[in-house]
Amino acid sequence: MADIETLQRTLGVPFNLPSLLEQALIHSSYVNENPGIARISNERLEFLGDAVLGLVVAEKLYEAFPEFTEGEMTRLRATVVRRETLARVAHTIGLGDYLYLGKGEEASGGRYKAVTLAGALEAVIAAIYLDQDLKRVREFILRFFDDEIQRAVTHSGEIDYKSKLQELSQAKLQQTPAYYVLEATGPDHDRHFTVEVRAGGTVLARGKGRSKKLAEADAARSALHRLSLDFTR
After folding, report:
1. pTM of the model
2. Is 167 considered catalytic here?
3. Is 93 found in the same domain as 163?
4. pLDDT, tens digit (0-9, with 9 covering 90-100), for 135-163
C-alpha cells in the first residue's frame, strides 16, 4: 500500500479523508487486475482536477499579468497545463512512487510515463479540492507550479520582451536599456536573481528569476507594462 502519510507531508496537505488521496493514486490498470480490491480508478478525479488546475492557472495569469491579451493568456495556460509540464511537477513530488499500477503497467515503466504521472497529479489536485476547498488547492497549485508559470511566461517572450523594451525605450526615451544584477541568493542548485533595468539614470523596473536571463526577461516585461501605461496617460 502507498505511504499516504508521507505523501501528505510532501504535498503539504493533511487530508480529512486520506481515502480520497489514495483513490487519486489508483491507475485503471490496477482496477482491471484487482477488481475485488479496487473498484474505481482515478480517472474521474483526473477529469475534475484538469478543470481546477486550468481555473487556478487562468486566474493567476489574469491577475499577475494585466498586460497580456486573451490570446497570450490562452497560449500560456496551455503551456502550463500540458502533459509534459504536469509530469515534470509530478516527478519533483515523487508521485510515481505512490501509484497503484497493474503488473503490466508496472513492467512497462508506468511509474515514469508522462501520461500516467500527469493524470495522477490532476487526480491529486481534485482530491485536495474535494477534501479541502478552492483556497487550499490554489495554494498547493501555485506552490508547485509557480516556477512553471514563470518559465512559460519568460520563455514564451523573453526575446520579445527585451527587444520590445529596447525599441520602446529608444523611441520614447532616446535611451538603450541596461540590466544590472542587484542580488543573487541561494545555493548553486537553487539560485534566485534580482535584476534592475535602467535607461540612462532612470530605473524602469525590477525582475526576479532563477537565472539572470529569466530575471532580465521579467524586468523587461515589467518595464514594458510601466512604460506603456506612462505613455497612454
Report:
1. 0.69
2. no
3. no
4. 999 999 999 999 899 888 877 655 578 88
